[in-house]
Each structure stands twice: as structure tokens, then as C-alpha cells.
Write a structure and sequence with these properties.
The complex is a heterodimer of chains A (787) and B (236). By secondary structure, chain A is an alpha/beta fold. Chain A is 49% helix and 9% strand. Chain A is built from 31 helices and 15 strands. In chain A, α15 (355-367) links the parallel β3 and β4. In chain A, α16 (384-394) packs across α29 (712-727). Chain A is globular. The mean pLDDT of chain A is 94. Chain B is of the alpha/beta class and 236 residues long. Chain B has a single domain, classed as Alpha-Beta Barrel (TIM Barrel), CATH 3.20.20. In chain B, 38% of the residues lie in helices and 22% in strands. The longest helix of chain B is centred in the C-terminal third of the chain and has 14 residues, at 165-178. Chain B is globular and about 55 Å long. The chains are: A alpha/beta (787), B alpha/beta (236).
């Protein structure tokens, strides 16, 4: 690592995340002019972005090679009052909460009190959403049945494709002009809407060129004042880069990275989309620039590495926008889920691993920072050497990169109707979500608490936690004469709550279509320009809305317990079992022990138990998959939890798998914490029994002690494990390599483990930033000592 | 054979045994019992082995028969490995060597690799700590080696018992004799993990006060034995 990178990395690690009111003030000022009454909604949004980019402070950090910050300085986090207006109490909570805090100074509080709150109160999109939700939705939401993604952040969930490396903003403006000229006002009833959207895109493209221009000016100014001749040259070079991109297509490796970074800032300044934004298949996009640079001797590997490291630091300087309430519980982290994809296959189906894939792995290993996250796509066509190299990094224990199955990704996308080339250009973003990069809007809409539905079924539609009758009356379980009757009742409850969720989703999606277009993001995702439609309005070539199932292991084991004890071996009656649950197993420890230790469990390659995972999967799939969304998309399912399994667990009483009230649920498609006793091969076999190809991603977590990765032989064993799981269509696996003792010590002495990063669920986080219960849960996850 | 340091006491009996243990759940102490060992047919074992076929395929891996002593149930072992062989699996037998030559002859062709235990070289010592003489064991080893089978020797390092100067010297002499046929020996350090198992089985743990072997001692031993030209690994 060069001195420059060391300094920048330290600066990034040490910077304190704080709320910057800059953006909120600028947005408010601009809306106060009342221009919104004179122009269409998309144009207003584009002009707002333009106003922010013209007036926000320009930050150039010492020594850096990639420039541009969303806020006035590293880790200065803006707010988005048009989406979610923070109250003074919210700000106080953000400031003082022990985990994932954001410093809020007095000036910010005053700006909120005097200007931002008075203007936006009653007008934010969050309030618009809540006003439009039914009481059924509100009850289910407050009971922890589901969460709502778009409540505090805008839909994003998309990844940049290869277009920006071939086209500058001026080229896109030309395309916009052509699209506008071909509008047919005589026959197309949407022609006016399209015209306004295209106007907005044009303004947005111009805005980012100007923004880069402001950086060029500032850089030239700094160059004039700079005494160090080397830095002076760098600053001059940077200034000329910022004059060239993003107006024009990049010509060099450096320009390509700087171009991406400007559009990244544009996307995350326009609104606060989920999963920030993401360059996606970075080794593929940058490869031609690397080859050209090396061939022309204008680039060395050392230079490429330093530029990439500088780029990495940029991501780390940008924590996720602050979340409060339930949204903070479901995703409590600074991580903003940019996930760099490496490896996989090319659009023609051939092996995509190249020299740059390895170079970027070196960067990941050396940087060891939270953001951006990284993953490797493993295709049957990729060499083992690539997996071995990635495992060498995984074994150092900060949870990156994670491992994905290219063939599964392609098959998932083909199953959803994407073209072969678009599927092969795809990958995964966020935690594990599959998408066609550059051509798809694949929104997550909320986590769905599957065990809670079983709990409600076992209480004849009533939520035992709140005491409210939330679901239909599906029968007193004591009267069920077969396990199938229970499944029938569960199915009715499931469909009932999925209907409530989908009704809410459809309204919320429509609100974003109407009120919150994103003309800047629309520039980047095909076919928004050609269609003259906004990203949030179905402009992408493919549109998908996901509901993410949570607690598959927990509900599977709970169903298996009932089947085994109540209906098959009949060693307890349903009535007695329900009584134990209502008494939280107190005084029933002996039977609780039976439930935990002597009952078949998912994750052990035991068909008796795994069958129920398949049953739940099919019911959930059937309830959601294929239903239409307002923007012309399709609802689908995937399985990932971020941190919602902790929150959902806190909303569920004792369950028949022996889990006590309030304890976390299982995460992703992983077995219940500690339930897998037959080693990783059995876990993989169990997980492969659900038809993962029909999802948009599943998350499987496996925790290993470092000894598991010690020598070449064990690396080969893990490679075989991975290949085996992927041959069975497994989607993803992540390895947590750290000993439980280390984690316990970290709990006691957090100060000694400032840089300890662990895998949470599809993403990595600083162990110190996790809540105590989540820390405990990570410690409990099975630690496999050998294959 | 009853090695005093055995860490698999539950495999001594040739019938299922009950084990007891106390567990704490929600602060309550519960006593539970569990059966160790089950009667299984070749077909049932085959079904379990087949479950991981997808991973064997990727790793060219296979099945290891261990024990107890797999040759003690020679009819079963013979049937099982011939079934496994028909499916093309790599087969390893982990043996104490304490079995009749006739038994070895029944499985030798279908076995790809032997893990072969060498414990104590002096016959009297062997008698004292394992309950049986070692002549059969050493003869079988030589025979297997001459048959050209691939063998990895396994040597349990039990402080004060197998790591004495006398035994190590004896071991090294043996290794020099075997050098032509065998090239690897794995050192298996004694661990007290089994103490709990003895309690659960209501059996005496005769090494109750023995400490685990330290890394340093093991490394020293490894370097010593490596002088024979053998590949020496710790664990395995």
C-alpha cells in the first residue's frame, strides 16, 4: 500500500459519520421558489438535482486520485426530506444511539427546526405512503409481519451496466434528442409524459457535466496553489479528466473510474436509493482500459492498483443514509450495499476471469474496508485457481469476497424471461439479489416474517404478542386431525398477509411513479431513454419487485416439530404444545430439550425435515410469484434477511422448534443457528432441496474457524464443497472465518477490535457496530471445525 | 483391544449403548439419555454414503471406514466396501491392524488406502496399555506393505506412554525398515476431549489427570521423526 493510500484509508476509517444538512437545505430552498407549480414533476426533480449540484460544496481531499463527495467531506451524510422527513427526535436518536450513530450538530438541528421541518411537514413521500395504507396493512406492519423498504428510502436496487464506458453524457443527450424527435403526439397518448421525462433526463445529464466542471475548476485552482510539483501535475491531470468525463466516453483506466464515480454521486444525490449504486462487473468493464494502458505503456499494475484503492476509499467515505424506526431495525448498518462482482462468464458464455479479476482481489485483500462489498461469481468455466485466490482472502476473516454461482444467476434470469446476453451480463447486488445489470429495476419491497404467519395460524388468526385478531379464522389447531390440515390453514393465512403486503406495494409503487421520478438514474438504465420512461415508472427493460422471505429454517423446524411430535409419534398433543409455547417453555424444559435436540432439523440432509422447507418454499412462491406490479413489473421471491431476522424474532413468541420468545429467527436459507450437526455437506444438500433457480437469490451463511482454511489441501476441500453446492444449483454461500473466542473477546474489549469485520447476512459489518443480540447470534452460529 | 487413551470409548461395545448427560437449558438442569450406536444394513450405510456423492465427485473424495475396528465386523465391511467400490468410490480403512490375516485378505483388493495405527513397539508395553500383543499387528503391516498397498501410518502421541525415548527409538527403527513401502506418518496428539464421554458412559477414564500434548512438544517430535525421511504430519 502506498503512503497516499495509507493516509486516505486512515482518514476514511477515522472519519465520524455525521448528518450534513446541506442537501436538505438546498432542496428546501429550491422548492420554496414554487417552481414546482410551473413545471412537470420529472422536470422539477431534474431541476432540483441541478440546483443541488450547482450549489453544494465541492470537496477535494488531499492526495486523492478519484474526486467527489456526496457531502461536504468524507462520511458527511445528507438527508432526503422529500422522501423521509426526520423529526428533531429522530435526529436526537441518530445522534445518541449506541450503534450506527450519526453525529448531529447544533447547526443541523437549527436548520431542521427553522426551515426543513416547517416546509416539508406533511409533504414527504413517507407521510404520503402512510396516509395511503389500510388499517390491515398498518396492523401487520406494526406486528412485525413485514417491513416496507420504500418507507424511508427510494427504490434503487439496480446496477450499472457497461454503457457508460462507451458513451459520454453528450452521447446520451443526443439519444434523448432523437427519442424526443420521434415522439408521436398524434397516436401515442403518453407522448406528453415521455416528452417531460426526456426533458428531465436532458437536464440531469447536463447537471452532472457541470458538476464535473466545478471539480475541474477547483482542481485547477488547487494546482495553481500547489507547491509540490508532483501533486501539482496530478491535480492538473485530474482537472483535465473532469473536463473530459462524464461529458465524453472515457479513454483511460483513470477516466473510467472517475466517470463511474461522478455518476455514482449523481444517483445517490438525486435520491437515497436502496443499495446505493454499483459498478457491478468491474473486472469486465475496466479490462479494455487496462489492456490499452498496459499496451501503450501509460499504465502499470501498480498505478492501476493505486487508482482502484483510491476508488475503494470513495465508497467507504459514503455510509448509507440514516434510517430510523423499523427500517433501521431491518437494516442496521453503515453499509450501503455496493457489491463489486468479479469473474463469472462473458455475454458469449466464455470464462470471464481475467488479469484484472486477480488484481482487484489483491486490492480487496489489501484494503480490508467495509465498503464496497465484493463477491466472486464462480462459473463451471472459471479455473480453480480463481476460487483458491478468493478463498485466501476469505480466510483472513473479514467476510469478503462472498461466493456466487454464475450458472444459477444466469438460469434465474432466464427463468424470469431475460435474454441470454442480458442474463450473462447479470450478477448479484445488495446482499444476494440477482439482476440483469444495466437493464433491470429489481426492487426489494420488504422482508416477510414466515414464522410469524405460522404463529398466527397456531392461534387461529390471532397475534399472541399484540392480542389482536390479525388474520382470518382458520380453525383452532387442537381440532386439526392431520398435518395437512395445519398446512391448509397456514396457506390461507399466508395468502391473506401476502395480499395485504402486495396491495400496499402496489400503492407505494404508484406513488413513486407519480411523485418521485429519478431522471438521472434513468439515463443509466436501458431502455429508459428509448422508452421515454422513468426508472421508477417501468422504464427499465425488465422490472421486478421482490418480497424477501425470512426465517425459512425456523418455520421449517417448527413445522417438523409439530409433524413429528403431534401427528407422527404423538408424544404430545397440540393443546399441550400450544400451552408450552404460551408459557415460553418455562417449567417445560425437558420437552423443550426434546424439541431442540431430538427432533429432525433442516440442515442435516434429512428428508423428513427438509421436506417442510420445500413445502414452505412452494407456498410462498405460489402466493407471490408472477403477480403484476403497477409499473409493468412482476412480483417474485427471494430469501435474505439483512438484520431483519433479529427484529422479526423480537416480535414472535416461543415456537415449536424450541426457540424461546424474542430470540432471533434463522437467516436466509441457513439452518437454525446450531441446528446443523452433520457438517457443511449436509447443510448444502438440505439447502439445495429448495428450487433456488426460481428465486431472485438466496443467502446461505457458513461460519468456519480459521483452521478450516489452513493449508492448500483444505482450500481444495472448500473448493470442492463450493463446486458441489453450485452443481446442485445453490445460489450463494458466504464464509464467516473467525473463532467464537475471538468474537467473545471482541464483545468484552471492543476497543481492541476496531477493525474486526464479520459477515452478517449477505454483507459484512464492523462487529462493534452490531447490537449485542446480533453479536451473540453470530457467535452462536455453528462453527464447523472440519469437513 | 482397549487402548488406555482411547477417545472413542462408545465404540468399544459391539452393541448400542445408553449414554447419559446433564444439560442446562434456561438455567434448569435436565438429565437426558441417548443411544450410541445403531444396527444398520449395508444398504442403509450405502444410502448415507450416497448423500454426499456430489461432493465426492468434485473432490475425487471417498469413504473412510473407521471404528472401533472395521475388520472386527469383517462380513459387513467386506460387503460394504465391495458395494462402494462398484460405485467407484475411493476407500480408506482406518485400522488398528489387530485382525486376522484372513480378514485382511478379504478386503485388501477393494481398499485404496490404509490408515494403519502404530502405538507401542515393545510387545510388553503394548500388552500393558492396549491389552493385546503387537506381533499380529506388525506382521499384518509388513504383509500389507509387501502387497503394495498404499499405507499412511498413524501414531498416537500420549504423554509418558507412547512418547518415551524408548518407544520413539523403536518407532524410528521400524520406520527405517518400512521406508521402501511407506512414506508418511501422521502424529495424532492425545486430547482430553473424551473425558466427557467416559462420564456419560459411566466408565472410568484411566488417564484423568493427563494433560494434552503441547504444540512445541509435537513439533520437536515431528522434526525428530522426520530424520527417517518420512513425511510427518500433525493431525490427519
Amino acid at each position: 500500500m502506498t503512503d497516499r493510500i495509507k493516509k486516505l484509508r486512515e482518514q476514511s476509517l477515522d472519519a465520524l459519520p455525521y448528518i450534513s444538512p446541506e442537501r436538505a437545505i438546498l432542496v428546501t430552498e429550491f422548492y420554496q421558489t414554487g417552481i414546482d407549480r410551473e413545471v412537470s414533476v420529472p422536470v422539477m426533480r431534474a431541476l432540483t438535482l441541478d440546483y443541488i449540484l450547482q450549489n453544494k460544496s465541492v470537496c477535494i481531499n488531499d492526495h486523492e486520485l478519484i474526486v467527489g463527495e456526496r457531502g461536504p467531506s468524507p462520511k458527511a451524510v445528507p438527508t432526503y426530506p422529500e422522501i423521509c422527513l426526520h423529526s428533531l427526535d429522530d435526529l436526537l436518536i441518530l445522534h445518541s444511539r449506541p450503534k450506527v450513530a450519526f453525529h448531529v450538530d447544533e447547526g443541523t438541528q437549527l436548520a431542521y427546526m427553522d426551515m426543513i421541518i416547517p416546509f416539508w411537514k406533511g409533504k414527504s413521500n413517507r407521510e404520503r405512503i402512510m396516509k395511503n395504507m389500510t388499517s390491515d396493512w398498518m396492523d401487520a406492519y406494526h406486528s412485525g409481519i413485514f417491513t416496507e423498504f420504500q418507507e424511508q428510502r427510494a427504490p434503487g436496487h439496480t446496477v450499472c451496466g457497461g454503457k457508460i464506458y462507451e458513451k459520454g453524457m453528450l452521447d446520451l443527450m443526443e439519444e434523448i434528442k432523437n427519442a424526443k424527435e420521434s415522439l408521436d403526439f398524434y397516436n401515442d397518448p403518453e407522448a406528453y409524459d415521455k416528452q417531460e421525462e426526456l426533458k428531465a433526463m436532458h437536464i440531469a445529464a447536463r447537471a452532472i457535466i457541470h458538476f464535473a466542471g466545478r471539480h475541474a475548476e477547483k482542481l485547477s485552482e488547487l494546482a495553481r496553489e500547489e507547491n509540490d510539483p508532483q501533486r501539482k501535475k496530478e491535480l492538473e491531470n485530474l482537472a483535465s479528466i473532469c473536463k473530459h468525463v462524464p461529458a465524453h466516453a472515457p479513454r483511460t483506466f483513470h477516466e473510467a473510474l472517475q466517470y463511474y464515480w461522478f455518476i455514482h454521486l449523481g444517483v445517490i444525490t438525486e435520491l437515497n436509493p436502496w443499495d446505493s449504486f454499483n459498478p457491478g462487473r468491474l473486472d469486465q468493464h475496466l479490462f479494455p482500459f487496462w489492456v490499452k494502458g498496459i499496451r501503450e505503456r501509460t499504465l502499470t499494475n501498480e498505478m492501476a492498483q493505486e487508482l482502484l484503492q483510491s476508488f475503494w476509499i470513495k465508497f467507504n467515505n459514503h455510509p448509507a443514509p440514516p434510517k430510523v424506526g423499523v427500517t433501521a431495525l431491518e437494516s442496521n448498518t453503515y453499509t450501503d450495499f455496493a457489491l463489486i462482482n468479479l469473474g463469472g462468464i462473458k455475454p458469449d458464455g466464455s470464462d470471464a476471469v481475467n488479469e484484472l479479476s486477480y488484481l482487484i482481489l489483491d486490492v480487496i485483500e489489501e484494503m480490508r474496508i467495509l465498503q464496497p462489498g465484493s463477491m466472486v461469481q464462480i462459473s463451471k468455466k472459471n479455473p480453480d485457481k480463481f476460487i483458491h485466490r478468493a478463498l485466501q482472502i476469505t480466510k483472513t476473516g473479514f467476510g469478503q469476497p462472498s461466493f456466487f454461482n454464475s450458472e444459477a444467476i444466469v438460469n434465474e434470469l432466464l427463468h424470469q424471461g431475460k435474454s441470454m446476453a442480458d442474463a450473462r451480463n447479470g450478477g448479484c447486488s445488495g446482499c444476494v439479489e440477482t439482476g440483469a445489470f444495466g437493464t433491470e429495476g429489481y426492487l426489494l419491497t420488504g422482508y416477510f416474517n414466515l414464522p410469524k404467519i405460522l404463529e398466527i395460524t397456531l392461534n387461529n388468526g390471532k397475534d399472541p404478542v399484540s392480542g389482536k385478531q390479525l388474520g382470518p379464522f382458520t380453525g383452532e389447531p387442537e381440532t386439526f386431525i392431520s398435518f395437512n390440515e395445519l398446512l391448509g390453514a397456514f396457506r390461507k393465512q399466508l395468502n391473506h398477509f401476502i395480499d395485504i403486503k402486495i396491495r400496499g406495494n402496489n400503492v407505494i409503487e404508484k406513488l413513486f411513479m407519480e411523485y418521485m421520478p429519478v431522471p438521472f438514474l434513468s439515463l443509466l438504465i436501458d431502455d429508459c431513454i428509448v422508452k421515454g420512461k422513468d426508472y421508477n415508472n417501468g422504464g427499465a427493460r425488465y422490472n421486478t419487485s421482490y418480497i424477501q422471505g425470512v426465517g425459512l429454517g425456523t418455520i421449517t423446524d417448527s413445522l417438523t416439530s409439530i409433524k413429528h411430535h403431534v401427528f407422527d409419534s404423538k408424544d404430545i398433543s397440540m393443546k399441550e404444545l400450544l400451552r408450552m409455547l404460551s408459557e415460553n417453555f418455562e417449567g417445560h424444559e425437558k420437552f423443550q430439550y426434546e424439541l431442540i435436540y431430538n427432533t429432525p432439523k433442516y440442515g442435516n440432509d434429512d428428508d423428513y425435515a427438509d421436506e417442510n422447507a420445500r413445502v414452505v418454499f412452494e407456498l410462498f412462491y405460489e402466493a407471490v410469484n408472477g403477480r403484476p406490479t403497477p409499473r409493468g413489473g412482476i412480483f417474485r421471491i427471494n430469501f435474505l434477511p439483512t438484520t431483519s431476522h433479529i427484529y422479526f424474532g423480537s416480535m414472535v413468541n416461543a415456537l415449536p422448534d424450541g426457540r424461546k420468545a424474542k430470540e432471533p429467527l434463522s437467516e436466509g436459507i441457513s439452518p437454525v443457528q446450531g441446528a446443523d450437526k452433520n457438517g457443511p455437506t449436509a447443510v448444502f444438500k438440505s439447502a439445495a432441496k429448495i428450487d433456488q433457480v426460481r428465486t431472485g437469490g438466496t443467502l446461505l451463511n457458513q461460519k468456519f474457524s480459521p483452521s478450516f482454511f489452513e493449508d492448500k489441501e483444505s482450500i481444495q476441500k472448500i473448493t470442492a464443497l463450493l463446486r458441489g453446492y453450485f452443481r446442485m444449483d445453490g445460489h450463494h454461500v458466504q464464509f464467516n472465518v473467525v473463532s467464537a473466542d475471538t468474537l467473545r473477546d471482541a464483545q468484552k474489549h471492543p476497543e481492541k477490535y476496531r477493525d474486526l469485520i464479520v459477515r452478517v447476512a449477505g454483507y459484512s459489518d464492523y462487529f462493534n457496530d452490531l447490537g449485542e443480540d446480533l453479536q451473540n447470534e453470530i457467535i452462536r452460529r455453528t462453527e464447523h471445525k472440519g469437513v | 483391544m482397549r487402548c488406555i487413551w482411547c477417545h472413542n470409548p462408545e465404540s468399544h461395545a459391539c452393541y448400542p449403548e445408553l449414554t447419559r448427560k446433564k444439560v442446562t437449558l434456561n438455567g434448569q438442569e435436565i438429565e437426558t439419555q441417548k443411544t450410541t450406536g445403531t444396527w444398520m444394513s449395508v444398504e442403509e450405510v450405502m444410502n448415507i454414503a450416497e448423500k454426499d456423492a456430489v461432493f465426492y465427485h468434485e473432490s475425487a473424495g471417498g469413504v473412510t471406514l473407521s471404528g472401533g475396528e472395521p475388520l472386527y465386523q469383517i462380513d459387513f465391511t467386506e460387503d460394504l466396501i465391495s458395494s462402494l467400490k462398484r460405485k467407484g468410490y475411493h476407500i480408506t480403512i482406518d485400522t488398528s491392524g489387530y485382525a486376522t490375516r484372513a480378514s485382511f485378505m478379504r478386503i485388501v483388493n477393494n481398499t485404496d488406502l490404509f490408515f494403519y495405527d502404530i502405538k507401542l513397539i515393545d510387545d510388553k508395553d503394548h500388552q500393558q496399555y492396549t491389552g493385546v500383543a503387537n506381533d499380529v499387528i506388525l506382521q499384518n503391516l509388513m504383509w500389507l506393505a509387501r502387497e503394495g498397498k498404499k499405507i499412511i501410518l498413524r501414531f498416537p502421541v500420549v504423554p509418558g506412554i507412547t512418547d518415551t525415548k524408548k518407544n520413539i527409538n523403536g518407532l524410528m527403527t521400524l520406520l527405517f525398515q518400512m521406508k521402501e513401502f511407506v512414506s508418511e506418518i501422521d502424529l495424532l496428539p492425545y486430547h482430553s476431549m473424551a473425558r466427557q464421554k467416559y462420564k456419560q458412559l459411566n466408565r472410568d477414564d484411566r488417564l484423568e489427570n493427563l494433560k494434552d500434548v503441547s504444540r512445541e512438544e509435537l513439533t520437536e517430535l515431528k522434526n525428530e521423526i522426520a530424520k527417517t525421511g518420512f513425511i510427518v504430519k500433525i493431525g490427519g
